[in-house]
Amino acid sequence: MSTSTALPSIAWIGLGIMGSPMSENLIKAGYSVTGYTLEQDKLERLAAAGGTAAGSIAEAVKDADVIITMVPASPHVEAINYGPEGILANAKSGALIIDMSSITPQTSVDLAKNAAEKGIRVIDAPVSGGEAGAIEAVLSIMVGGEQADFDAALPILETLGKTIVLCGPHGSGQTVKAANQLIVAVNIQACAEAVVFLEKSGVNLQAALDVLNGGLAGSTVLTRKKDNFLNRDFKPGFRIDLHHKDMGIVTDAARNVGAALPVGAVVAQLVASLRAQGDGGLDHSALLRAVERLSGAQV
């Protein structure tokens, strides 16, 4: 693309279920993307899509204007940012880090503070929409940080998502993401209970879910997960292991601010039990399996 020289150069750290399609959407939009991740096949996928594979974090970030990170949890964010091989030690002054991981709000606040000492700007920009939203570039992106940094990041974020909102200072994006994960988990659990109830009652499940989704019980969750329920297809778009991590974030953050989450706490335990039963690698719609077990099915 002729405009590519004017676009900021991007380093992308973390090419998983979400990171790979998101980085590819930036390449399609004309951005120069250099990526690093732990899986060799993901680096090959990036190169095949027109990106550049780096051999280390340091190599990926050294010349980048913008560094986007998309890793599983707070310990990973700390591991890639800190230390002699990390982002902060190797990025150029004035670079902007967009952390799209879902982590504790405090981790985001600490990262922004430590980065500022090196002249590096940070926004937290976790996303909602799952693998499908990443592929289709229709993610919802909740951002925490300074207005000027949000404005600088906006053209990039608009290539990745549809609903992009600055929610407040550093950590605010993560707080809103935690609330998102609370709503999604409780919603999936309610849908799963309805599915088991409907099936045990002998109703046509496809018809029932179609009509429910057209009324007040309808939701993005039901639209996205209906086929998972119908086909018992739990190939991960968003793994139970990660939702377990997120439920820990929201219950902990809620305790810190004095908010009661009675239903959220129950669903957090159901997610934990599913993980303990070996279903951690399945999609979060597999909460259906927990309800089936409780209802006497052998799954």
UniProtKB/TrEMBL annotation:
Gene3D superfamilies: N-(1-d-carboxylethyl)-l-norvaline Dehydrogenase, domain 2 (1.10.1040.10), NAD(P)-binding Rossmann-like Domain (3.40.50.720). PANTHER family: 3-HYDROXYISOBUTYRATE DEHYDROGENASE-LIKE 1, MITOCHONDRIAL-RELATED. Residues 171-290 form the 3-hydroxyisobutyrate dehydrogenase-like NAD-binding domain. Residues 9-168 form the 6-phosphogluconate dehydrogenase NADP-binding domain. Belongs to the HIBADH-related family. It comes from Streptomyces cirratus. Keywords: NAD, Oxidoreductase. It holds the Pfam family NAD_binding_2. It comes from the Bacteria. This is 2-hydroxy-3-oxopropionate reductase.
